[in-house]
Design brief:
Layout lengths: L2 H25 L5 E2 L3 E5 L1 E4 H14 L4 E3 L43 E10 L5 E3 L4 E4 L3 E6 L2 E6 L24 E3 L1 H6 L7 E9 L4 E8 L7 E7 L9 E8 L13 E9 L3 E9 L5 E10 H6 L1 E7 L5 E5 L1 E2 L7 E8 L2 E8 L6 E2 L4 E4 L26 E8 L4 E12 L11 E10 L6 E8 L9 E9 L5 E9 L2 E10 L12 E2 L24 E4 L7 E10 L2 E10 L5 E2 L3 E2 L10 E11 L18 E4 L5 E9 L2 E9 L6 E7 L5 E7 L10 E10 L2 E9 L4 E9 L6 E7 L7 E6 L5 E10 L4 E3 L3 E4 L6 E4 L6 E6 L7 E5 L5 E6 L5 E5 L6 E8 L5 E8 L3
Parallel strand pairs: 4-6, 20-25, 37-43
Antiparallel strand pairs: 1-23, 2-18, 3-14, 5-35, 7-8, 8-9, 9-10, 11-12, 12-13, 13-14, 15-16, 16-17, 17-18, 19-21, 21-22, 22-23, 22-24, 25-26, 26-27, 27-28, 29-30, 30-31, 31-32, 33-34, 34-35, 36-38, 38-41, 39-42, 40-41, 42-43, 44-45, 45-48, 46-47, 46-49, 49-50, 49-51, 52-53, 53-56, 54-55, 54-57, ...
C-alpha cells in the first residue's frame, strides 16, 4: 500500500472511530447528578507572621531530617480501548508527508527564558521526597509549592535584569523570599499535629487570591482535604491565610469515599468555584475509584467552606480545570479513560445547585501507552515516571481568535515516530488542545515531545503545558537518558505554528550531577509528581514554568522559569499624519492607523478589560496626547492624536508598549496648512414616534459650513443620503427631520461638509421599532470581525455561523444584552449564514460574505 492510500485508510478509520465515540458519548442522557453539598465549615485565619513563627519552631525541631514518602499509590493506568490501530499517530491533525510524526528538536524556544532561579531543593530544612513540585504566578509574586516547603518571591519584570541562580551543579537558592515555611507548619498553624503532602497552588486573577490545597497522611483511612486562601494578592507579614479542612467521614451518607484514603489531589479555579480531583484507595492501598469536589469560591473567601463531593466519576486521576475567564458559567473535570480516550465531566449550577453531568463524555485522542521507568545517567535505578495521568489542565481564551480551549499533557511511552506504543522504549510528552467545551468537546490538536534516537533515546516526562492569551503555548518537562543526566526542557509553539507541532525546545538547566538518593532501592528513585506552567495575570502573555531537575548529587532542585513573549511588532513610521478636526480652540485631533511588521511572531497585543496591564501608546511633544487606543490585530492598532496647533509641522516619537512592558518606537510628523471644518455638533438624537422616526440635532460655529447631509442605513454598513440641509447661520442652531418610511432597524448619521469640500461624520444613532425581531449583522462583507445587534429577548441564546455546506463552523453563547462582536478571522472567504436563537425557540438568520484581503 502506498503512503497516500495508507493515509486515506487511516483517515477513514479515524473518522469511523470518531463517529462511533461521538454516538457513544451522546447515547446516554441520564439526569445530571445533583450534588449533596456540605456547608458551614468555618475557617481559621492566621497571619503570615504567625505562620512564619510556627514554621521556625517546626524547622528547628526537624532540622536535618529527611521525609521520604511511601511509594505513590498508583491507579490502574489504562482501561481497554477500542481499535487502537486506528489512532496510531504522533500528532493531530495528521501531516500528509509523515503521518504526523515529528522528532523533538533541541535548539531554541518560542518564548525566551528571562529569569530562571532555584527556589527550593532537597537540602532545604525538613526536605521531603519526592518534591511534588508546582507553582503559579500572581500579580506581584510567584509562589512555589513543594512537599515540605512553600516559598513566595517577588515577581521580576521581563524588562528588568534577569533574576537567576546557577543552573548547573549547585545548591544556591534565590534569597529573600517573602514567605519561606514548611508545608506541615503552614497547615499546623491552624490544625495542630497534621502531616501533609501533595501541595497544589493556584492564583486566581479574578479575586487576586492565592489558593493552596493539600491532603493529610496521619490517617490510614478517612483522611482530610486541606485548604487555604490568602487575604490578598501580595503575601506579607501582615497578610493572612484562612484555613479549612474536611474529613472523608464527614461526606454525605452513601458517598463512596467514606472509609477510604484520598490521594493525589488536583486543583483548578474559575469564576465560581475550586475544582479538585483525587484518586481514592482502600486502607490496604488498593485502588477503589476517582472522585471530584467542587468548592464555592466566594464562600471560601468569606470564611466558610462549602463543598460538594462527587464520588466514582468514571475516570482516572481527574484534573480540576483552571480557567480565569470572568464570563465562565460552568466548570470542568478531565482525566484518563482508556488508551484512545480521555474522560470529561461538566459542572453546572442550575438554580444555584452544584450539578455534575450524568455521564463521562469521552474525547477521542491518539493512542497512548503506559510510560516506562526513566533511565538517567548516574542513576543505578531508573526513575519513577508514574503513569499516563494528566497534569495541570487549564483553559485559556485566545484573545486574537476569541476562542477558549483546554490544554493538558501527560507522559506516555512512544516509539521512534512519537506514536504511543507498549514497546516504544522511550518516554515522550503528549499534549492536547481541546475545543467546543460547552458542547461536545473534541481534540483541536495534539503533539508529542520525544526523541527518535535508536540508541539511548532521551526521555521526556512529567510535562505541563499552558497557553497565553496571545495563543502561544509553553510546555515544561524533565528530560534524561542513559547517557544524559536529569535536566529541565522547555518547548513551545506559536499561535501561527502548524497544528500539532512544537517549535524548537531548549534546556533550562545544565546539571552534571548524579541522581541516586536511595541506591536504586525502596522508592525506585522517586520523581515528580506534579509540574505546572502559569500565565502572568497582569499581562496575559509572560509565562512561568515550575519544574525540578537534579541540582547536585542525589538531590533535586525546583526552579521557577520566566518566559518572555516575543516583542511588539516593528512599528512602521507614520510620516505626516492627517489634519483631523479642531474640537477645542488651538488644538487638533486626528485618527491614526499604525501598522507593524511581524518578525518571529513579534506583535502588538492587548488582553482586554480586566487586566492590570494594557496595550499603551505614548508620544513626545509638550501638550500632545494619545487617546482611544484600539487593538485591531497583531500588526495594527488605531488611536487618536491630539496636539496644540503651535506644534504643527514638528516631528514626534511614538512609543508602543505591550502589556509586558516591552516597547518599540516610531516617528510621525504633525501636519501644517490644514483647513478646519468649523461646524461643531452639540447633540444628535433619534426616536420612534408611531410609525416614523424623529431626528434632532444641534450645531454651533457654522463658519464656512456648506451643508449637512442626513444619511440612513439598515445594516450599519451602507449609508445613503435621505435629506440635505443648508446652514442655519454662523452661530448654528437646532435641526429636525422626520423619516416617514423607517425599517424595523434604522441607523442614521450626519455628514457635515465645509465649503472647501472637507467633511466629517457624526456619531451613529440607532432606532429600532420591532424589539422582537430586530437583528443586524455588519459589516457585510466582513474580513476579521462581525458585530451583531439584536433584541434583548435573545440574551442567553446562541449565535451560530453556518457555511455553504450547512456545517456549523462557529458558535458562541449570547452573554451581552444587545450586541456581540465575533472574531471571524479563522473563516475562509465565502458565503455564510449567521443565525441567532433564544430559549423561546425564536430564530433569525442573515446571509453574510467573508472576504479575506
Amino acid at each position: 500500500m502506498n503512503n497516500l492510500s495508507k493515509l486515506k485508510s487511516i483517515f477513514f478509520s479515524a473518522l469511523m472511530l470518531s463517529l462511533f465515540f461521538f454516538c457513544f458519548g451522546q447515547s446516554a442522557h441520564a439526569q445530571d447528578i445533583i450534588g449533596k453539598t456540605i456547608t458551614g465549615i468555618k475557617g481559621i485565619t492566621k497571619t503570615v507572621a504567625e505562620i512564619n513563627a510556627n514554621s521556625k519552631i517546626y524547622d528547628e525541631a526537624n532540622k536535618g531530617k529527611i521525609f521520604p514518602l511511601r511509594p505513590e499509590l498508583e491507579t490502574p493506568d489504562l482501561l481497554p480501548g477500542f481499535d487502537n490501530e486506528s489512532r496510531l499517530f504522533g500528532k493531530w491533525p495528521l501531516d500528509s508527508t509523515n503521518l504526523g510524526n515529528t522528532a523533538s528538536r533541541i535548539n531554541g524556544v518560542t518564548q525566551t527564558i528571562h529569569s530562571n532561579f532555584m527556589a527550593t531543593d532537597f537540602s532545604t530544612a525538613a526536605g521531603g521526597w519526592p518534591p511534588d513540585n508546582n507553582g503559579d504566578v500572581g500579580s506581584t509574586q510567584v509562589f512555589i509549592a513543594q512537599n515540605y516547603r512553600l516559598k513566595v518571591y517577588a515577581k521580576p519584570s521581563v524588562i528588568g535584569a534577569a533574576v537567576t541562580t546557577p543552573n548547573g551543579t549547585s545548591t544556591a537558592l534565590l534569597g529573600s523570599p517573602a514567605l519561606d515555611v514548611s508545608q506541615n507548619a503552614f497547615f499546623r498553624t491552624a490544625f495542630t499535629g497534621v502531616t501533609t503532602t501533595d501541595p497544589h497552588v493556584r492564583f486566581d486573577r479574578l479575586t487576586s487570591r492565592w489558593f493552596v490545597i493539600s491532603m493529610s497522611t496521619n490517617e490510614a483511612t478517612n483522611n482530610y482535604l486541606l485548604f487555604a486562601v490568602s487575604s490578598g494578592a501580595t503575601i506579607t507579614g501582615t497578610a493572612s491565610f484562612t484555613f479549612f479542612r474536611i474529613q472523608l467521614s464527614s461526606f454525605p451518607v452513601g458517598n463512596a469515599d467514606i472509609g477510604n484514603f484520598l490521594d493525589y489531589p488536583t486543583l483548578g479555579v474559575d469564576a465560581n468555584s475550586l475544582y479538585l480531583g483525587s484518586n481514592i484507595f482502600t486502607g490496604a492501598g488498593a485502588f477503589s475509584h476517582s472522585s471530584a469536589y467542587v468548592v464555592d469560591k466566594s464562600d471560601m473567601i468569606a470564611g466558610t467552606l462549602t463543598i460538594t463531593p462527587f464520588s466514582a466519576i468514571n475516570m482516572s486521576t481527574p484534573q480540576g480545570v483552571h480557567n480565569d475567564d470572568v464570563a465562565a458559567t460552568e466548570g470542568y473535570i478531565i482525566g484518563s479513560f482508556n488508551s484512545t480516550r480521555l474522560g470529561f465531566r461538566r459542572v453546572t449550577y442550575p438554580g444555584g445547585v452544584t450539578t455534575l453531568s450524568a455521564t463521562t463524555t469521552t474525547i477521542v485522542i491518539n493512542t497512548i501507552a503506559s510510560p516506562i521507568l526513566q533511565p538517567a545517567a548516574g542513576s543505578s535505578g531508573n526513575l519513577d515516571a508514574s503513569n499516563s495521568r494528566l497534569l495541570a489542565a487549564m483553559i485559556m481564551k485566545n484573545k486574537i481568535t476569541g476562542v477558549s480551549t483546554l490544554w493538558t499533557a501527560h507522559t506516555i511511552q512512544v516509539n521512534t515516530s512519537g506514536v504511543g506504543s507498549t514497546t516504544g522504549g522511550r518516554n515522550g510528552c503528549r499534549w492536547y488542545e481541546f475545543q467546543n467545551l460547552a458542547g461536545t468537546p473534541t481534540m483541536l490538536q495534539s503533539g508529542t515531545l520525544f526523541n527518535d534516537a535508536t540508541a539511548n533515546p532521551r526521555g521526556f516526562w512529567f510535562p505541563s503545558i499552558a497557553m497565553s492569551g496571545q495563543g502561544h503555548a509553553i510546555l515544561a518537562s524533565s528530560s534524561a537518558s542513559a547517557v544524559d543526566r536529569i535536566n529541565i526542557v522547555i518547548a513551545g509553539r506559536y499561535r501561527t505554528s502548524a497544528l500539532g507541532d512544537l517549535e524548537d525546545s531548549t534546556y533550562a538547566t545544565s546539571t552534571g550531577s548524579d541522581y541516586n538518593p536511595f541506591n536504586g532501592a525502596a522508592f525506585v528513585n522517586r520523581w515528580g509528581d506534579y509540574s505546572q506552567v502559569g500565565v502572568d495575570p497582569n499581562d496575559n502573555m509572560t509565562m512561568w514554568a515550575f519544574h525540578q531537575y537534579c541540582n547536585s548529587t542525589n538531590s533535586y532542585g525546583v526552579r521557577a522559569i520566566q518566559l518572555k513573549a516575543p516583542p511588539p511588532a516593528a512599528a512602521i513610521a507614520l510620516g505626516t499624519i492627517g489634519c483631523g478636526t479642531g474640537p477645542v480652540v488651538g488644538t487638533r485631533t486626528t485618527a491614526v492607523t499604525l501598522n507593524g511588521t511581524s518578525t518571529n511572531n513579534s506583535e502588538f497585543y492587548d488582553p482586554g478589560t480586566g487586566y492590570a496591564n494594557r496595550l499603551a501608546v505614548t508620544t513626545t511633544g509638550a501638550g500632545v496626547s494619545i487617546s482611544n487606543i484600539v487593538f485591531v490585530n497583531p500588526t495594527q492598532i488605531t488611536f487618536n492624536v491630539v496636539w496644540p496647533t503651535t506644534l504643527n509641522g514638528t516631528t514626534q516619537t511614538l512609543t508602543i508598549t505591550n502589556p509586558d512592558l516591552q516597547a518599540v518606537t516610531t516617528t510621525y510628523t504633525l501636519p501644517t496648512g490644514c483647513i478646519l471644518v468649523p461646524l461643531d455638533l452639540i447633540s444628535f438624537t433619534g426616536k420612534g414616534i408611531d410609525k416614523r422616526v424623529q431626528l434632532d440635532w444641534t450645531t454651533e460655529n457654522e463658519v464656512n459650513s456648506d451643508y449637512i447631509g442626513l444619511e440612513k442605513s439598515t445594516d450599519k454598513y451602507t449609508f445613503s443620503e435621505i435629506a440635505r440641509f443648508n446652514s442655519i447661520g454662523l452661530s448654528g442652531g437646532n435641526y429636525q427631520h422626520f423619516d416617514n418610511n423607517p425599517a424595523d432597524l434604522n441607523y442614521y448619521r450626519l455628514k457635515q461638509v465645509d465649503v472647501s469640500g472637507a467633511f466629517k461624520y457624526s456619531n451613529i444613532v440607532t432606532v429600532r421599532f420591532n424589539e422582537k425581531i430586530g437583528f443586524s449583522v455588519y459589516p457585510n462583507p466582513a474580513s476579521t470581525s462581525l458585530t451583531l445587534e439584536y433584541a434583548a429577548t435573545f440574551k442567553n441564546g446562541m449565535i451560530n455561523i453556518i457555511d455553504a455546506a450547512g456545517k456549523r463552523v462557529l458558535s458562541k453563547k449570547v452573554v451581552e444584552l444587545n450586541k456581540t462582536i465575533l472574531n471571524v478571522s479563522s473563516l475562509q472567504s465565502g458565503v455564510y449564514v449567521v443565525e441567532i436563537n433564544n430559549e423561546k425557540g425564536e430564530k433569525l438568520q442573515q446571509k453574510i460574505v467573508i472576504e479575506k484581503k
